[in-house]
Amino acid sequence: MRQFKTESKKLLDLMINSIYTNKEIFLRELISNASDAVDKLNFKSLTNSDIKLDSNDLAIRISFDKDARTLTVSDNGIGMTAEDLERNLGTIAHSGSEEFKQENAESQGGDVDIIGQFGVGFYSAFMVASKVRVVSRAFGEQTAHVWESDGLEGYTIEDGERAEHGTDVILTIRENTKGENGEAGENYDTYLTEWGLRDLITRYSNYVRYPIQMMVSKSRELPRPEDAGDDYQPQYEDYQELETINSMTPIWKKRSSDVEQSDYNEFYKSTFHDWDDPARTISFHAEGSLEYDALLFIPGRAPFDLYSKDYQKGLSLYSSNVMIMEKCADLLPDYYNFVRGVVDSADISLNISRETLQQDRQLRAIASRVEKKITSELKAMRDDDRETYEAFFENFGRGLKFGIYSSYGMKASELADLLLFWSARENKMVTLAEYAATMPEGQKAIYYAAGDDRERLSKMPVVKGVLDRGYDVLLCTMDVDEFTFQAMRTYHACGLSKVYEDEVAREAAAKAVADGAEPEVEDRDIEFKNVATGDLDLATEDEKKDAEEATREHGDLFEAMKEALGDKVEKVAVSARLTDAPACITTEGPLSLEMEKVLARGPEAGTEGMPKTVRVLELNAKHPVFEKLVAAKEADDTEKLSLYAGLLYDQALLVEGILPADPVAFAQNICSLM
């Protein structure tokens, strides 16, 4: 017996038990080796006119024998001499394929696609096999040679027989093992079944460029006998037929002009298990220092588990048509986690097991290009097919908004123009750019209201107050909306009408436009303002003056109401924003009522230190109710004033969609007034 050329026992044990994390990839590795062998012979025929070879005859054959517990991977490729067996299989981590690639680097092209890199894929067979026998006959040789090993100490090489050039790798599959200490055992019988092998081939090697053939069981109806009676029941027989299991030509390697959209749709639905056609298909080929193909799909609907903790994002990563990772998460940012597809590159640097990547730089370059392509396609959908885009946004918009929030606003420049919000004035979804384009002269902020129901928001006094002044309000009903605005802080709007600092400049610009000049435009940052927080500064000078006078005249009333409400509010004040409502609740500081509600539903709800809003009860001094408050104060009716204050506060809370702290007391107070 010959010894492996290295410190064999330790290194081989490392190869078999440590490099690969998934036993089932052994078949992928053996098929890839077979594909390389066929590719080498094909390449030889292309460079040597004396070699006559019909490329249609090149194939890989899979067969199994349940009784003998053997699995065989055969090819009719270039084969190996005894010296090749010694060098390639006797020397661990020597790659004949890698050597071939280096020797023929200049003359390789689209006709050759060598997969092997490290020379260790063959040894993955020992993860599932107790013995491996390799029978190989080199092209042009008359004698075959047999390499055999149990993967423990060494190997033997002897003369053998094979009818034609090529290689047979024969695995003696291990016996099943029982689980111990609560762990599952190993079911090696899977590798001796038609369905098990078919699944592995289609999952990992479906796009190997040569046919992968296997005898499969089928059933057919026997001819009806001539003397069969009326009660004859059809009879069937089972038979074996050689079938090509793999698809060979991947759809992402074809030119998009040569592929019908229906073909893309069928590939998407069958590969990613969706019933609906994709909303958009993105296919592109990148060249340069890193060459790769990408085929991406934007789904037509959200998967049921999209927002669950078990959902896994990622694109399928292939190298030379062989699947490396089913879901490579690093190829997609979180906010595009809904995108499905494939990236295939022969240039990426894989680790020795071909299960993970070595160079993050290459992956980052691909991911960056993929992200830009997705963004560009979404913008095109937004502009060219608004109805489809609005349906898309209904499904996936929450993730885009969360992408801005989770990046602390760093991704706002990329994602802001993809967002949609409901316009209270237009009664439709609008982008931030569309909102900014319709702002009247003098508007300094983008106004929004946050809540859980669009209908209720549109009727809120603070919203109506802003609308009555001619400004639009975005009605935001996603729990992430307000957090997104706080992360963005401002929106960079382009092409807005220029704002002039003084009257002279404004008049000069107006005259120039009257004389035929184009109106001047500018880009500027516009801040976001919640209509229920802070001072919106929308009141006219007269309204501000009236509010100040009411505050001076009725300061004692506000103090009494504040005392009656206690720590429920920070203060009671005259409102300059209300038009027909008697009162409203506003907040001071960054935390709004809606944000407080969202946080109250989170994991930290009820814990000490939960942030609370700083609430203000604002009163409409022009409303008839205010006169009742003044009368109660003048009559020194403390009890009635306290009752009124509590009712107005609870009523304002109900308008905000918040239940009063004591609904029973609220109802009793209403009844007492009646």
Tell me the CATH topology of the largest domain.
Heat Shock Protein 90
CATH level-four homologous superfamily name of the largest domain = Histidine kinase-like ATPase, C-terminal domain
DSSP E strands, number? 23
Q: What is the rounded Rg?
A: 37 Å
Query: Which sequence of strands runs across the widest sheet?
Result: 1-6-5-4-7-3-2-8-9
Walkthrough of the structure:
With 674 residues, this protein is of the alpha+beta class. It folds into 4 domains: 2-178 and 186-216, Heat Shock Protein 90, CATH 3.30.565; 251-387, 2-Layer Sandwich (Ribosomal Protein S5, domain 2), CATH 3.30.230.80; 420-530, Rossmann fold, CATH 3.40.50; 541-673, Heat shock protein 90, C-terminal domain (Four Helix Bundle (Hemerythrin (Met), subunit A), Up-down Bundle), CATH 1.20.120.790. Helix content is 35%, strand content 21%. The protein is built from 20 helices and 23 strands. A 9-stranded mixed β-sheet has the order 1-6-5-4-7-3-2-8-9, with helices on one face. β5 and β6 (154-160) form a beta hairpin. α7 (360-384) packs across α8, α8 (386-406) packs across α13 and α16 (555-565) crosses α19 (638-655). The radius of gyration is 37 Å and the shape is elongated. The relative contact order is 0.06. Residues 93-98, 108-118 and 352-356 have low confidence and may be disordered.
